[in-house]
Design a protein that fits this description.
Blueprint lengths: L25 H8 L3 H15 L4 E11 L28 H13 L4 E6 L6 H15 L4 E5 L5 H9 L4 E3 L6 H4 L8 H13 L3 E3 L2 E3 L5 H13 L6 E6 L16 H14 L4 E4 L8 H9 L4 E3 L12 H11 L2 E2 L4
Parallel strand pairs: 1-2, 1-9, 1-10, 2-3, 3-4, 4-5, 6-7, 7-8, 8-9
Helix pairs in contact: 1-8, 2-9, 3-4, 4-5, 5-7, 8-9, 9-10
């Protein structure tokens, strides 16, 4: 990264009538990523404090409701049937199991309960069962989120009728780098699902993964693509690749921690009112790196002992870190 100051006034802003405050190009995001670190952090903090309480972090818990056996070939994913990672395919959980997990998440301080299923897209029978789960979790007083793969328009409407608050469908990376990671689903497929979700009046949770061997330009391209969605996502998970044995990315070079923090800051600046979630990879981060991510504008985490199939910092560790940092939990929006 260049240490030379840049003229950030050259970044062009375009007023919009929607939640998107500005149009961001890859070049403009590259300029952000190249700023001196202290300047970038200062700018991210200015944006963050203009839109959120400075010392609050939203806490979500993620449960795998259907694990393994996915027909997609996402190079990072241990749930793909294309790779031998030791993850065994399991059936969709029973409603009672999901409710029990949601109750536990609420007791521990989570305000949003996210349910993930390893599908390319859900069939109608399974979607009806997931809709029941959404309604039951919603009745507990939690925000609801699901990630089920690609959706058709009528499926999105059905989930909205069940009370779904958020649908997660990540872009994963920039359009240019996407073909290096996935071949079984196109970028346009992802954009189409996001549009169906928007049309159904469901809030969008959409982010990506960094540390997959992409260039700085590809990371900038991901942020630019997310920020250019109209409107941009209400929730933006930024995942640090968890390298899993058996996947094609098991030997990917680790991304420098400061570069990861820069990515968080760029997400905050370009999507001022989004909840920027520090997602996968926290297990490998020390407290200082996580603190820098929060300083850069991350104000949401996955909270619990596991994500879908990989480990996550234990709740007691998170509580101790939050006490050190003087941060509190946000309420349900």
């Amino acid at each position: 990264m260049s240490s030379q100051p840049i003229d950030t006034s050259r970044i062009e802003f375009r007023k919009a009538a929607t939640a998107r405050e500005c149009a961001w190009s890859t070049e403009a995001v590259l300029e952000l990523l190249a700023m001196p670190f202290a300047d970038l952090m200062f700018r991210a903090q200015e944006v963050h404090r203009a839109n959120f309480e400075a010392n609050q972090i939203q806490r979500s818990t993620l449960l795998s409701i259907k694990t393994g056996g996915c027909p997609e070939d996402c190079a990072y994913c241990p749930q793909s049937l294309h790779f031998d990672t030791g993850v065994k395919a399991q059936k969709l959980l029973e409603l009672s199991e999901v409710v029990e997990a949601a109750q536990a998440a609420k007791r521990h301080g989570a305000t949003r309960f996210c349910m993930g299923a390893a599908w390319r897209s859900p069939n109608q029978r399974d979607l009806e069962r997931v809709a029941e789960m959404v309604a039951a979790v919603k009745n507990l007083g939690l925000e609801t989120c699901v990630t089920l793969g690609m959706l058709e328009a009528h499926q999105a409407r059905q989930l909205r009728e069940a009370g779904l608050d958020y649908y997660n469908h990540n872009l994963d990376t920039s359009p240019e780098f996407y073909g290096e990671i996935i071949s079984t689903r196109t970028y346009q497929d992802r954009l189409d699902t996001l549009q169906h979700v928007r049309d159904a009046d469901i809030r969008v949770c959409c982010g990506g993964i960094v540390g997959m061997g992409e260039s700085v330009r590809a990371r900038a391209g991901l942020i630019a693509q997310l920020a250019s969605l109209d409107p941009y996502p209400e929730s933006v998970p930024i995942n640090h690749l968890v390298r899993v044995a058996g996947t094609p990315l098991a030997a990917a070079a680790a991304l420098d921690g400061i570069d990861f923090v820069r990515t968080i800051a760029a997400a905050r600046i370009t999507m001022p009112r989004a909840m920027v979630r520090l997602s996968a990879g926290r297990e490998q981060m020390d407290e200082a790196l996580q603190a820098l991510c929060f300083l850069a504008g991350a104000n949401s985490i996955f909270y619990g002992d596991r994500l879908l199939t990989t480990s996550n910092p234990q709740i007691v560790r998170d509580q101790a870190l939050f006490a050190k940092l003087g941060v509190s939990a946000t309420e349900i929006s």
